[in-house]
Amino acid sequence: MPITPQLSLSPLGCGTWAWGNRLLWDYNPAMDTQLQGVFNTSMAKGITLFDTGDSYGTGTLNGQSEKLLGRFAQDYRGRSASRLCIATKLAAYPWRLTRQAMVKAGRASAQRLGRPIDLVQMHWSPANYAPWQERALWDGLGDLWELGQVKAVGLSNYGPQGLRQAHAYFRDRGIAIATLQVQYSLLSVASLPLQDLHDTCQELGVQLIAYSPLALGLLGGNYRQRDQVPKGLRGILFRQLLPSANPLLAVVDAVAQGRGKTPAQVALNWCLCKGTIPIPGAKTVAQARDNAGALGWRLDPAEVAALDQVALALDRPMVQNIFQTS
């Protein structure tokens, strides 16, 4: 029988994609003190799950997210330090062809973090373009677990079919798949087989993690008009999505006003109501506090149903990750 991993997963996490990413998130090293404030604030509020990846950080800053997270974790002295769970994702790069390459990647991540990895995840599946590569990468993840270098194994960007295949493989090695993370938000519910994912995860005992739960910030309340969008790639995407998304954003705003909450808190609480662990990003302490405000309360069934109805009717949902598989 697979051994059930012992992980401390807080109900809400913090994604660190922006920590080192200049292309999409305008990172610069001057932000590091602010990002450490995000880490400390999140930990103090009981948000002890931090998600990163060995591909996070652009150009010469590749791996910067792991480095910063490791440094902040080492410096933290709060009471929740013992509950810290760092999850990283190992990329299915085309040059990672062997199980040894995956083990080497895991060790490199642990070195950047300055601590063992709690949850190691396959960042995406190569099934759509190089299916022959996948088994070796699974082998490497399993080796990391068997060597005692990670506490648990998870997946990312897998659909129900791929999850079942991976679950069967790891089960035969006596390893339980602990988590699956996929793009999951009110803006993506119309474009993914989320109910099938929920059912499959529940059947297999896998915790579903929602990444991009605020749809790159579009659900956060700051972008309601085309002239308000940020610069760069996100602005281009937001201008495309806004005409279709406005009816949904109006309902989110109405629920937020009625509840005395922010739009971001409503969008995150909707994810919580769906049984997922949302991992929104944060670049400022104010954003970290706003995210934490999604905890300690629940939308009622009528509010969830109203949000579901308008989300499922979107003409143009959020663009899906190109690596998402069936």
From TrEMBL:
Pfam families: Aldo_ket_red. Residues 11-310 form the NADP-dependent oxidoreductase domain. The keyword Oxidoreductase applies. One of its GO terms (cellular component) is cytoplasm. The keyword Transmembrane helix does not apply. This is Aldo/keto reductase. Keywords: Oxidoreductase. It comes from Prochlorothrix hollandica PCC 9006 = CALU 1027. GO terms for molecular function: oxidoreductase activity.
